[in-house]
Amino acid sequence: MKNSIYDNYKSPRRKNYVFFGILIVGIAFIFTGLYRGEVDTVISKAITICLECIGIG
Amino acid sequence: MRFMKKTLHKLRNNLRTIIQTAFVLATNGYIKGFGEGSIFKGDSKGLCVPGLNCYSCPGALGSCPIGALQATLGSQRYSFAFYITGFLMVVGAFLGRFVCGWLCPFGLFQDLLYKIPFIKKIKKLPGDRFLKYLKYVMLTILVLLLPMFISDMFGQGKPWFCQYVCPSGTLMAGIPLVLFNEGLRSIIGWLYAWKLLILATVVILSLLVYRPFCRYICPLGAIYGLFNPLALYKYEIDADKCIKCGKCRHACKLDISTYEKPNSMECIRCGDCRKSCPQNAISCRLSAGSRAKSLCTSDTSEKPQD
Questions:
Q1: Is B96 left (phi over 0), alpha (psi -120 to 50) or beta?
Q2: 3 state SS for B27-54
Q3: Residue whose C-alpha is closest to residue B168's, from B28, B256, B64, B299
Q4: How does pLDDT run across B208-233, given as a tens digit for each residue?
Q5: Residues B230, A19 contacting (CB under 8 angstroms)
Q6: Other CB atoms closer than 10 Å to residue B204's CB: what's the count?
Q7: Beta-carbon separation of B67 and A46 below 8 A
Q8: How far apart are the CA of B176 and the nearest CA of chain A, in angstroms?
Q9: What is the number of other CB atoms lying within 10 angstroms of the CB of residue B180?
Q10: I need a labelling partner for B151 at 20 to 30 A (CA). Which of B40, B78, B109, B207 fits?
Q11: ipTM, two decimals
């Protein structure tokens, strides 16, 4: 029975590899973003009222 | 004893609503903002909350991942948002769409609306088969492509999804800020009216059908949905117990056949299927290593008889 694009990952062991792969890449991305200073961009956007978000800008 | 059992049963039945409410209050605890018509400006805004929680909500202590993603992609300094992409990957890898079901404020809002008795509830909107892909279009075009490639004269991209669609922003930020901030009230125009119209449409649809925004529009749900089949938290079917009676599908407000697709990309892990299973065949697990840890099984034996 074909259910989804994830049929290739039906084997539990392969699913585990994918999970850990995503986790490791995700953590690496977070640290890369921190190193590049992306948090400053997020903070500067988040601490001022986002006029676009509220439907004004 | 019977009263205790009934109370415990009621608490267990409402556990999700209790957790949703507690999480929304904990991440939107800047009460002063509501009084002043202003927003929180602390360092915690550098961290994202997992759900669709507008960072311009007066109470918000963290950032919205979709807003932050657009802000970074739209920034002239960056062409890729490593920080937010990494955050979404980590949360998605652990929880998948559990976030939608248990931790999202706009999900809670729609849940509460759905509880209001209406003429007749329907399982899905006409065209559901195609409409459910709309959220991927929203994600690709409004959240990723347009902020990346369309910029103003200063090289700054706009948060297109927030600006033209997001009803969560209207509800959590637009309405309270305009109510409590006179300066903002004086400059509202057609865009504000447009966003109110979208919010009103979502509200009306939420009375009829379960979580229309999450099913058809939400780009964050689209992202977490991709992780659902691979996430650490997952549902499992005991093939020896399952009799394929279809009661899980009947109980599922999102019309998912849990016994066929326990980790469907649409499943928000509300747990209704587990409660409805007469065979206790559906369990939720944390499974990543060779040993899967069972967290819970559908338990019908303890339900009090009225």
A1: left
A2: HCCCHHHHHHCCCCCCHHHHCECCCCCC
A3: B64
A4: 999 999 999 999 999 999 999 999 99
A5: yes
A6: 12
A7: yes
A8: 10
A9: 16
A10: B40
A11: 0.88
d(CA B53, CA B158): 18
Q: Please tell me the distance from the alpha carbon of residue B148 to that of residue B217, in angstroms, as a whole number.
A: 20
Q: Which among B160, B58, B51 has a CA at the least distance from the CA of B110?
A: B51
Q: What percentage of chain B reaches a pLDDT higher than 90?
A: 79
Task: Kindly list the distances between the CA atom of residue B146 and the CA atoms of A31, A39, A50, in Å, as whole numbers in the listed order.
Answer: 26, 21, 18
CB-closest option in B46, B86, B169 to A54: B169
Q: How far apart are CA B108 and CA B111, in angstroms?
A: 5
Cβ contacts of A43 on chain B, cutoff 8 Å? 43, 45-46, 63
**Residue B299 pLDDT more than 80?**
no
- Sign of the CA dihedral B233, B238, B241, B242? positive
Mean pLDDT over B276-291 rounds to: 81
pLDDT of residue B279 exceeding 60, the answer is yes
CB B163 within 8 A of CB B67: no
Residue whose structure tokens are 């909500």: B57
pLDDT of residue B290 exceeding 70: no
